[in-house]
């Protein structure tokens, strides 16, 4: 404590994990995998009215190789499942996955021959955002939950 | 109400092929024999007073388990919606197709759009279109077995390429 009081005002003491978590949670580079109507709600969240950039997630990447967070937005059919998995495999660690909307969480209303019953049967999911489609407030809540998760996890270097 | 020009001309020209017709509030429908489908459509397209130059839709119906013997006791019915841009009139042509031999001639010589519509119909109902240049699945993947819009396809039977059969 003596050291801390001697340096007060000029130095902040913290842990590497905490700093990395803080940096990572406020610089989320999204890869939006948009397949259906949920995409409109993603766009509404990203646009100026709700402004996803307030949470440091305002810069979608157009290659999974540059992205941290895979946003799966919309119904995933069985024909698309291998494509989604391949996109996820191309992302560098550390990476996270958000299931955006009822279809990605559980298949939603589509209990039929064509639809994957939740993308967590194919790739691991960190945050589920339910809704058909979810309102922008719900999406922002999901992003905040993801930030909490990133902050509190062990940071791989 | 007076019979529409289209149905009148069809009955004159193809008296033995027209199984049934009906008209409801301006919507004309003709049930025809499948062997004459190309001739009938060509006639509708090329007659200058009818000029059905646009194939709006092509699909099928599965009447399995339906009571009352619809479609003269045949399981399938292929449905064509034709439209005339010139006269702004439309007609629905339906052709019964039996389960034992689910085939009908392709309309690709008349309308290029029939190519993709017939592929979808094959994909979903398993109806074969004779003379089609490349009859393969259009929406589902090649590994898929069966035709999902047939009434005897189990409602939730899934055939995943990867992942569990959930």
Q: Can you tell me about this structure?
A:
The complex is a heterodimer of chains A (157) and B (166). With 157 residues, chain A is an alpha/beta fold. Chain A has one domain (28-148): Rossmann fold (3-Layer(aba) Sandwich), CATH 3.40.50.12280. In chain A, 36% of the residues lie in helices and 11% in strands. Chain A is elongated and about 70 Å long. Chain B is of the alpha/beta class and 166 residues long. Chain B is built from 3 helices and 7 strands. Chain B has helices at residues 5-13, 37-46, 114-125, and strands at 18-24, 27-32, 54-62, 76-84, 89-97, 103-105, 128-130. The model of chain B has no long low-confidence stretch (mean pLDDT 92). The chains are: A alpha/beta (157), B alpha/beta (166).
Note the topology.
The complex is a heterodimer of chains A (157) and B (166).
Chain A (H helix, E strand, L loop, with lengths): L1 H6 L8 H10 L4 E5 L3 H9 L22 E5 L7 H10 L5 E5 L1 H5 L20 E3 L6 H17 L5
Parallel strand pairs in A: 1-2, 2-3, 3-4
Chain B lengths: L4 H9 L4 E7 L2 E6 L4 H10 L7 E9 L13 E9 L4 E9 L5 E3 L8 H12 L2 E3 L36
Helix-and-strand structural type of chain B: alpha/beta
The overall pLDDT average of chain B reads 92
Query: What is the CATH T-level topology of chain A?
Result: Rossmann fold
Q: Can you identify the CATH class of chain A?
A: Alpha Beta
List keywords for this structure.
heterodimer, A: 157 residues, alpha/beta, Rossmann fold, 4 strands, 11% strand, elongated, B: 166 residues, five-stranded mixed beta sheet, 7 strands, globular
